[in-house]
Design goal:
Elements: E1 2-4, H1 7-19, E2 24-29, H2 35-47, E3 50-55, H3 65-69, H4 75-84, E4 89-91, H5 95-98, H6 117-121, H7 125-140, E5 144-148, H8 152-164, E6 170-174, H9 194-200, H10 202-215, H11 221-232, E7 238-246, E8 261-269, E9 272-280
Parallel strand pairs: 1-4, 2-3, 2-5, 3-4, 5-6
Antiparallel strand pairs: 7-8, 8-9
The protein binds adenosine monophosphate.
Function: Catalyzes the condensation of pantoate with beta-alanine in an ATP-dependent reaction via a pantoyl-adenylate intermediate.
Active site: 37
GO cellular component, one term: cytosol
């Protein structure tokens, strides 16, 4: 496995592979890798002959400096996991490599898809995501790139960004990998105390409740999200950032629950912010 810390090292290997007509799959991450990330790697390996993983905690996408400071890092462990998983190249740049004195000079934004969900409650977040992903896309120039559907809004924004900016890259969405109680795997789960981890299991239980409400014919988004909110707030250590039912492509607020919709939530368990989502199939009364 190659480990590139500079653009020159990265591009030398990529150029060799392109000359040999390899198909290159790319998995961008912020590290502290778990099975969810490894699932993206496997998805790439299934359809590409070379897989590149980037590990970079991107300061530009953190609207809360404390969240950035506390983001878990384990480069050594991550490299071992990549090696064992058969990754071909890891790009592990320092901040100065990705942002050589130019941070913030260009802002990409996608107004419609950012109106709700994390776009509303984390101002600047998706601008940071689009900036780093487009920079990485230019540097790695993969044929295909793999993103988790856990970050559904991110996936939709990248899908549209690639079309709008003519990146010749196919975007693949990979279903969310979950712990045995249904909690979505996340690097942030490592920050939960054992008590908070127990509380976090209310999240998958809330999605099961949502499913039952829909099966019982609930059609009003506001009543629906209020019931789900009350369920989560049965624990004093949960604070709700948002619970929203939106159209699964446009991400605009659903006026009713008569067609399929995306239920997406962000909550703080203690100080840790967790997100999750599920597409719910309407009962079509
Ligand atoms: P992150 O390192 O959290 O920025 O995530 C890197 C990529 O892994 C993103 O495309 C995420 O959506 C994806 N990802 C994170 N958690 C999961 C999960 N539990 N299942 C599948 N993909 C995930």
């Amino acid at each position: 496995m190659f480990v590139a810390r500079t653009v020159e090292d990265l591009q030398k290997t990529i150029l060799d592979w392109k000359l040999q007509e390899h198909s290159i799959g790319f998995v961008p991450t912020m590290g502290f890798l778990h099975e969810g990330h490894l699932e993206l790697i496997r998805s790439s390996q299934n359809i590409c002959s070379k897989t590149v993983v980037s590990i970079f905690v991107n300061p530009a996408q953190f609207n809360d400096p404390e969240d950035y400071r506390k983001y878990p890092i384990d480069n050594e462990g991550d490299l071992k996991k990549c090696e064992t998983s058969g990754v071909d190249l890891v790009f592990l740049p320092e901040k100065e490599v990705m942002y050589p004195n130019l941070e913030g000079n260009i802002t990409l934004t996608q107004i419609d898809l950012q109106r709700n969900l994390c776009g509303r409650t984390r101002p600047g977040h998706f601008e940071g995501v689009m900036l780093i992903v487009s920079k990485l896309f230019h540097l790695v120039s993969p044929n295909k790139a793999f993103f988790g559907l856990k970050d559904f809004q991110q996936f939709r924004i990248i899908e549209d960004m690639v079309t709008l900016l003519n990146f010749p890259i196919e975007i693949h969405g990979v279903p969310t990998l979950r712990e045995s109680d249904g909690l979505a795997m996340s690097s942030r789960n490592a920050r939960l105390s054992s008590k908070e981890r127990e509380t976090a299991s209310l999240i998958p239980r809330m999605f099961a409740l949502a499913q039952r409400l829909i099966e019982n014919g609930e059609q009003h988004p506001q009543t629906f999200t209020e019931i789900l909110g009350d369920f989560l707030l049965s624990s004093a250590s949960i604070k709700i950032d948002y619970i929203e039912a939106v159209h699964p492509r446009s991400l605009q607020i659903a006026n009713d629950l008569k067609s399929d919709f995306l239920l997406a939530i962000a909550v703080f368990v203690g100080n840790t912010r967790l997100i999750d989502n599920q597409i719910l199939k309407s009962k079509n009364l």
